[in-house]
Amino acid sequence: MSNTVTRDTFDQVMVPNYSPAGFIPVKAEGSRVWDQQGREFIDLAGGIAVNSLGHCHPEVVAALTEQAGKLWHVSNVFTNEPALQLASALVEKTFAERVFFCNSGAEANEAAFKLARKYAADHYSADKYEIISCTNSFHGRTVFTVNVGGQPKYAEGFGPNPAGITHVPFNDIDALKAAISDKTCAVVIEPVQGEGGVLPADPAYLQAARELCTAHNALLVFDEVQTGVGRTGSLYAYQEYGVTPDILSSAKGLGGGFPIGAMLTTAAIAKSLAVGTHGTTYGGNPLASAVAGKVVEIVSRPEVLAGVRAKHQRFVDGLNAINAKYNVFKEVRGMGLLIGAVVSDEFAGRARDFLKAAEAEQLMVLVAGLSVVRFAPSLVIAEQDIDDGLARFDAAVAAVVAASRH
C-alpha cells in the first residue's frame, strides 16, 4: 500500500463525521504551520484552544521526550510519579483538594456529572438527580454530556435521552432561580460559552449561581475545558471571576496538544467516588501527565499570564481596526485569548465563509456556531504573528466582502 496520503484519502478511509480543511499540516513550530506543499500558515486556532504553548514548545518537547524514555503506561492498578506531581500542582494552584485524571473534556465532564449525582444520592436522596445547564452550552459528545449540553442538534438521533436534565438561558439569574429546587444536584456553567459563541458569563450571574447552589445543597460545576489553563489570563477563569465552584472540569489546553483531562473537586465531595465507582484505563498516563505538568508550570509563570492580557488587547484592537474598514462585525467579545467576532446581520450564518477565506490566505481560524469567527491562539504567540495573522485576516474579510457586495 502506498504511503502517500492526501486530503482525498480522508474521504476514502475515515468516518465522515468531519469535513476537514483542504490542506494537511505536516510540520509546525510556535504559531507557524506548514502543509504538504510547504506552504506556511499562521495558526490563530490553536487546535481549538488546545495548543496553549503553540507547536513543539522546546520545554514541552523535552518533558515528553524525557518521560518517553522512562515509562509510558502502567494503568490505574498502579500510580505514577508524573500523575502525582501534576495533581499536586493543580491542588496547590486551585481551590481543589482532589483530582481525577482522564483523557478528554467530555470524560472530565462525564466524571463531574456522575460525581454530582453520586454525592447527592449519598448525602440527600436518590430523587436529587436533576442537572441544570444553559442553553447553547457545550459539554462533550458522550450521550450523557451531549444532553447536558444545551444544543439539541448534537443529541438528535441518539435517543432515548437521559432524564433529569433542564436547560435555562445563559446569564439569566431569574430563570436559574425559577428552575433550581431541592431536586437539583448540580448546576453546570461555562464561565465563557465557547462553542455557543464565545460569550462570557456576567460576574453577577456566576455569583448568583454560587449562592443558589449553596442554598439548595446543589453542587456548582464549572466547565473550564476551553477556558482553563491560562486561556482567560488567569490559570482558571473562576479565579478571574472570584467565584469558586465545587467541581471543575479541565482538558484542552491542559496537555498543550497531548490528550488529557482532569476533574478537580474538594476532598469531602471526592469521597463519593470510592474505589470501583468510576475509572479509566488511560487516565493519568505518565506521558500525558509529564507533558501537562510542564504546561501548567509554564502557563503559571506571571509573565505568561500577563502576556495573555496584553495580547488580548492587541487582538481586539486589530479586529476593531479591520471592522472599521469593512463593517462586518457587530461585536468583538471574549476573555484573554478566547475571542469571538460576531458577524453583522448582513453576514448572519456565514461565519464559515470567513474561515474558508482565511484558509485561502494561509491563516487558520475557527468558528463558534454559525455567526461567530473564533480565535484561540497560543498563549505565547509572538506579537509579530498576531500582526501578520490579522493582516491575512484583513485580506480574508476583504475577499468575503468583495464577493458579497459587488
TrEMBL record:
Name what cofactor the protein needs. pyridoxal 5'-phosphate
Tell me the residue numbers annotated for binding pyridoxal 5'-phosphate. Answer: 105-106, 138, 223-226, 281
According to its UniProt record, this protein's enzyme class is transferase
Q: Where does N(2)-acetyl-L-ornithine bind?
A: 141, 280
What SUPFAM superfamilies does the record tag this protein with? PLP-dependent transferases
Q: Which Gene3D superfamilies match?
A: Aspartate Aminotransferase, domain 1, Type I PLP-dependent aspartate aminotransferase-like (Major domain)
- Specify the pathway: Amino-acid biosynthesis; L-arginine biosynthesis; N(2)-acetyl-L-ornithine from L-glutamate: step 4/4
Q: Which InterPro entries match?
A: Ac/SucOrn_transaminase_bac (IPR017652), AcOrn/SuccOrn_fam (IPR004636), Aminotrans_3 (IPR005814), Aminotrans_3_PPA_site (IPR049704), Class-III_PLP-dep_AT (IPR050103), PyrdxlP-dep_Trfase (IPR015424), PyrdxlP-dep_Trfase_major (IPR015421), PyrdxlP-dep_Trfase_small (IPR015422)
Assigned keywords, A-Z: Amino-acid biosynthesis, Aminotransferase, Arginine biosynthesis, Cytoplasm, Pyridoxal phosphate, Transferase
Compartment(s) of residence: Cytoplasm
Query: What Gene Ontology terms describe what this protein does at the molecular function level?
Result: transaminase activity
Per UniProt, the cofactor note for this protein states: Binds 1 pyridoxal phosphate per subunit.
User: Where is the PTM N6-(pyridoxal phosphate)lysine found along the chain?
Assistant: 252
Q: What is its EC number?
A: 2.6.1.11
Q: Which reaction does it catalyse?
A: N(2)-acetyl-L-ornithine + 2-oxoglutarate = N-acetyl-L-glutamate 5-semialdehyde + L-glutamate
Share any extra remarks.
May also have succinyldiaminopimelate aminotransferase activity, thus carrying out the corresponding step in lysine biosynthesis.
Please describe the quaternary structure of this protein.
Homodimer.
UniProt record similarity statement: Belongs to the class-III pyridoxal-phosphate-dependent aminotransferase family. ArgD subfamily.
Please state what the protein is called.
Answer: Acetylornithine aminotransferase
Q: What is the lineage of its organism?
A: Bacteria, Pseudomonadati, Pseudomonadota, Betaproteobacteria, Neisseriales
